[in-house]
What does this fold into?
Amino acid sequence: MSSALVWELIKNNNSFLVKRDGLQLSSESNNLTNLHSFKYSGIANNKTVGIQAATRGIKLTKNTKKTSSPAKSVNSTVIAKSRRHTAKSVANLIARSNYRADLLPAALARASAVISSQQPVKQKNLRPAKGIRALKA
It folds into this structure.
């Protein structure tokens, strides 16, 4: 089926649709922005990109042309590098390989957010109190 027909069938009612405060969000696996729209839909589009957290780094998944065999229909790559190298790898895998250049900003934002969430939280060093009030306490 065509992508437009699939979108017309699922746009008003599907199991991934989340309605909150007048917004329509989506919890699909290959939806980079979690917005309920045709452009970012992981179900309706033939070419989709998904970025998830891996144990170290990110896991980038793309659909392939081998739709007849489910095991080979998804190509996944784990990228475990620094933030800058990860961004370059994501750009190479998406836009420069002529896959879907319109998804590049959303993919870079998602990859950056996933990498930021994996960084350990630094504890603030509190300076010792100085002055007269510190001596009184």
In short: The longest helix spans residues 104-118. The chain has four helices and five strands. The chain has a mean pLDDT of 88. The beta strands are 17-20, 23-26, 49-53, 58-63, 74-79.
